[in-house]
Amino acid sequence: MGKNKKIVRYRRTFNGNIGVIIFIFIFIYIVYNVFSYATATHISVYEVEQGTMAENNIYRGLILRDEQVYDSPYSGMLNCYVRETSRVGVGDLICSIDENGAVSRMIAEASQDVASIREDALEDIETAIYEFGASYDAQDFYNVYNFKDSLSSSLSEALNLAALEDISDYTANAQASGSFHRLTADRPGLVAFYTDGYEGVTLDTFTPDMFDESKYSRVSSQNAHEVANGDPIYKLIRSELWNIVFPIDDDLRAKLADTDTVQIRFVKDDKKIYANCSILQRSGQNYLVLALRSSMIRYARDRYVEVELLLSEKTGLKIPNSAITQKEFFTVPTDYFMKGGDSDSEGLLIERRTEDGEVISEYVVPTIYYENDGCYYIDSEDVSAGDLVRKPDSSGTYTIGSRTASLQGVYNINKGYAVFKQINVLYQNEEYAIVETGTTYGIMLYDHIALDGSKIQENELINE
Q: Is pLDDT larger for residue 438 or for residue 159?
């Protein structure tokens, strides 16, 4: 009985000691892992993606067009019947001058009746609303304001024309008495209801001070209901040919010296178009002239416009600049490599001297990172500086480390450890780089790379 009590007491003591030991091991394991995690280098990961970048050259240019200003031949109230930047033909009604204001008051009163709008004009407005809604993109919200102005002009045009028809008998009498005057287009063109004094400026007559927008002013005649004899009331843009001109530096002049066509992007609405280009020199200053044959109607309200010259758009793999790093390599002529052993990969026959002076030969297959000028780039993982390489079928030798070179690259971490991959940068800005795709020893789309290449070394295990 006493012996059994001792056995039970011993088992309890043993079990208690085992529990303490297990607890200590668990505690040590937890402390070790916490310490390891706290002291380890944690690497942020970036997934390689496809991207396009362009060399940014954004300039604000002066627009020069073939414009003719039409002054009012009478004094009185002005009423307009076409929306701004609309096309007119010879004989089309543009506006009217009412010398005593009676017709204008009747037009204003009659234009309050929306029901008087002609069916074809109403259909045009409905079509414009539908087309805008179908093509609306929230990223281009600025187009909402352009559409609002266009719709307002179209509605005003439709209402005024309808009102003019409703009081046609009265206007006929007023016209007969010489107090009401209809002004029609004497040639086809694009109507604009503003003037700024630059209408007659050409490539031969523009001056440097015209690029100072603080001195620029314009007068809108569409909202000036009362005009005097000789006041400008509208202008006709008479040609689809137009120019954008702006000053440039010597570097851009040299870059475009042999170029006669360039693709541009209008910053205002992101439209891209090709333009003929030429360079003028005026008083020691270089000016780039962009000659265009289309799209003028989109910018007929503007005298200045921002354009981007798309000189070098590059497409490839997009990576952050922070991932790019440098690594030093041994360079070995490619004719020292051979295929041997059980591998189809190219390797080197290395001769090394042991501690007791014996020379031994060893076939090694180093990782090849890059090929350039008849040399492979390899690192020190499989070879060391001073190793002697035997040339195949020859007595020639080459000493590892006699020539070195550095490569630009990133660390690929797909396998959980860092592997250096060489890159060829096509274009780079302050944040990102576009690198060449399909390089033999480089990265590929969707590879995971270290976001900060300076914080990692070759073969280092990754803690994300």
A: 438
| Bridge partner residues of 317 (DSSP) | 50, 435
Does position 208 have pLDDT exceeding 90, yes or no?
yes
Residue 88 C-alpha from the chain's centroid = 37
The Cα 404–Cα 369 span in angstroms is: 13
Q: Looking at 196-337, which runs of residues are DSSP E strands?
A: 219-220, 226-227, 232-248, 261-266, 272-282, 285-292, 304-309, 313-320, 325-333
Tokens of 158: 């439709």
Burial class (CB in 10 A: 0-12, 13-18, 19+), 198: middle
Q: Phi and psi for 124 in degrees, rounded to 5?
A: -65, -40
Give Cα separations from 108 to 18, 103, 166 (angstroms). 102, 9, 12
Q: Which H or E run includes 370?
A: strand 370-372
3-class state of residue 264 by DSSP: strand
Burial class (CB in 10 A: 0-12, 13-18, 19+), 193: buried
Q: What is the pLDDT of residue 175?
A: 66
How many whole angstroms separate alpha carbon 390 and alpha carbon 399? 9
Strand, coil or helix: 77: strand
Range 348-357 burial, b when 16+ CB lie within 10 A, else e: bbbeeeeeee
Comparing CA positions, the residue from 282, 236, 275 lying closest to residue 259 is 275
Closest CA to 77 of 47, 100, 107, 109: 100
